[in-house]
Amino acid sequence: MNSKPGFLLPRLSVLDWLALVLFCSLFACGAYYIASADRDFLVKPGLFGFADWVLLILFSFAGLPLLTFGLVGALALIGAQFRWPRIQFWKFIPSLFALLAMGCWATFRPFLFSDQFVIADRPEQNASSHGDESDRSVRVRILHANIYRFNVAPANLQRIADLAVSESVDILILHELREEQQSFLDMQLTESYPYRLSSTEHPYFGFGIYSNRPFFVRNLIAGRIEALASIRVQAFPGCDDLFDLLAVHPVAPFNPRILGVHRRTIGSLAEEITARKSAIPVVVTGDFNSVEWSPDRRNLLQKSGLRQAVSSDRWEQVFRGTYDTRWWETFRLPIDAVLVSGDIRVLELRRVAIPVSDHLGLLR
Length: 364
Prior knowledge:
Elements: H1 14-35, H2 46-58, H3 64-83, H4 93-107, H5 109-112, E1 117-119, H6 123-130, E2 142-146, H7 154-166, E3 171-175, H8 179-189, E4 195-199, E5 207-211, E6 215-222, E7 226-234, E8 241-250, H9 256-274, E9 282-287, H10 295-304, E10 307-310, H11 314-318, E11 336-340, E12 350-353, E13 360-363
Parallel strand pairs: 1-10, 2-3, 8-9
Antiparallel strand pairs: 2-13, 3-5, 4-5, 6-7, 7-8, 9-11, 10-11, 12-13
Helix pairs in contact: 1-4, 3-4, 7-8, 9-10
């Protein structure tokens, strides 16, 4: 009997096809997202741009939220397999592993990519350095906070001012600052912080910088949907420059068109850093409105050579979320950050509660 050459393909059930398509989709999306950092800050046109934006929004929850969902899904899968043993739920295990792998990749980045992070000194290292008379470095404490534009109660604003003074903050950086808030804080902080820079024309992206060290402005972008301020900080009037400080607040990427504006701001920040001709250290603080594992944030680190500062506490290295304070710790997103150049030594970094704000502040 004549037989035609060919391949013998196994017959797949509906469940097999579902498991296969789900795994391939998760794998393809994850691989594309992870590999999409080495590019310019541009938005693809048409359908590709829309798909890019959808992935950006979905993968914003790829850290602890996705890891939690994956663990719950694993428990549910085990329970379902015992409850209905005839149905082969185990075929979805590869998809669960894909989710858990993505969650671990985003959650444990400080441990997996040490070249992109700088860990703050431990308390005992701080104590020993304070007693070292040969250490002539200048210590500067910076508090970055998005104080929430509707947070206008004088009692709450007073608590913010008291927090800065009680923590011996040298430079206070506030985002979402509106005119009423600025007027109140100006009166409360005049004595402690004689040097200041602010813009409240566009309240959602208003900002204020209060400093007890002199500085001069190098660049300023204060727009309706973005803010970027670059200053050069000095130890004392007329003394040598200490470092460049950049405060950034791009618009959240609510849709594909706004994503272009978001990336333009982060691209401007990268250009501002890479175009510098001096060897002065750099500190960047900001409410980036994008998570640290997003392509834009990873691209920023690659192009600028900066590293993200993280706490010396292992718990804080995992639970880095700063938004939204109304959510459980597990579901908060790390959209606020402090970035530093290699010649900056981070003595401390911790999250601090800001009265009534939906963001946690960062103190370093």
